[in-house]
Amino acid sequence: MELKYGCNPHQKPATLEVPDGAFEFLNGKPGYINMLDALGAWQLVHSLKQATGVAAAASFKHVSPAGAAIARPLTDALRRSQMLGDGDYSPAALAYIRARAGDRMSSFGDVAAVSEPVDASLAKVLDMEVSDLIVAPDFEPEALDILNKKKGGKYLVIKADPAYEPPEMETREVFGFTLSQKRDDSEITKDLFAEAVSGEAVPEDIRETLVVATIALKYTQSNSVALAYDGQVIGIGAGQQSRVHCTRLACGKAEKWLLQQHPKTLGLRFKDGLMRAEKTNVVDQFLLWDELSEPEMDAMLAGLAERPEPISREERAEWVAGHGGICLSSDAFVPFRDNIDRAGRTHVEYVAQPGGSARDDSVTAAAGEYGMHMIHTGIRCFLH
What we know:
Layout: E1 23-27, H1 32-52, E2 56-61, E3 64-70, H2 76-81, H3 91-101, E4 110-114, H4 120-128, E5 131-136, H5 141-147, E6 156-160, E7 169-174, E8 177-182, H6 204-218, E9 224-229, E10 232-238, H7 243-259, H8 263-266, H9 276-286, H10 294-302, H11 313-321, E11 327-330, H12 338-345, E12 350-353, H13 360-369, E13 373-376
Parallel strand pairs: 4-5, 5-6, 11-12, 12-13
Antiparallel strand pairs: 1-6, 2-3, 2-4, 7-8, 9-10, 9-11
Helix pairs in contact: 1-6, 3-4, 4-5, 7-12, 9-10
């Protein structure tokens, strides 16, 4: 099929060959990047459902997940931080709400994927968000009615066949060169995280959260590090040349996710008429209070009905420290303790990595200084 264009509008023509029955396009016409995101997002949620047996969702942007999650109930603080009402949500909707909440700024204009049939509950959530595409195994008629009207009828709706299996070998052409490799069919299961290096058993809910983080990394451009909490990714550092930069990015995003639920953040009073995306931007600026220039401060205050009280440095540290069970997963071994030191500031308690570094002992010892539990999986998850 013909695509709108390639990575950029001047890259025409662009086409897509679809294996028989793998994808069915129910509405809209995709572009090249849409398809790359849809393929990555679908693989992620399909793998996550197989590993956990729970409804899974992903929010993809620029060939990496902005967020990923399994369905678990929403806390009141998380619901309020995402500016949602008190309604009941289906498992598919819960999974997507939590996936998008992981980094809602990055999820603006996302490709959404869920492991379950899309129902009206999820369709109504998608209808109020800025999103470009949804890929799922099926769609209920009421959900299709809602989605086919989104974006003036141009919202992309793709039905995926969960039974489709790609060939064992995959190829890629770059600059006239053709590369081939056996596709990454490694299985990320809870068994990989059963025991810490110290011999301690890892709790079941933590193992499930580590599965979410690690499967997300499998479909994230490397180098990459993910932080996860309560079955959802809350910060991803993707595509960095240095692992500590991945860790800094992931930890910074995770802290912002936590601080979005701080009472002072939830108490912000927005001016009437502000759109959800504009409110998101105001919250983001509020959480960067000490770093704002005068024009940035003016822009933030312009969206608020009254001047707020900032969250102090001490309040930030206390709030982050109050959340137990934060997990970190790395797509390759952790080479130096600087990653552990940065993770310690975000009060990470569990670290999963392949292991195999010459400094494994010193990195594990550093984790012990912070009371972290180190887990070696033996599986590297590079993606390029």
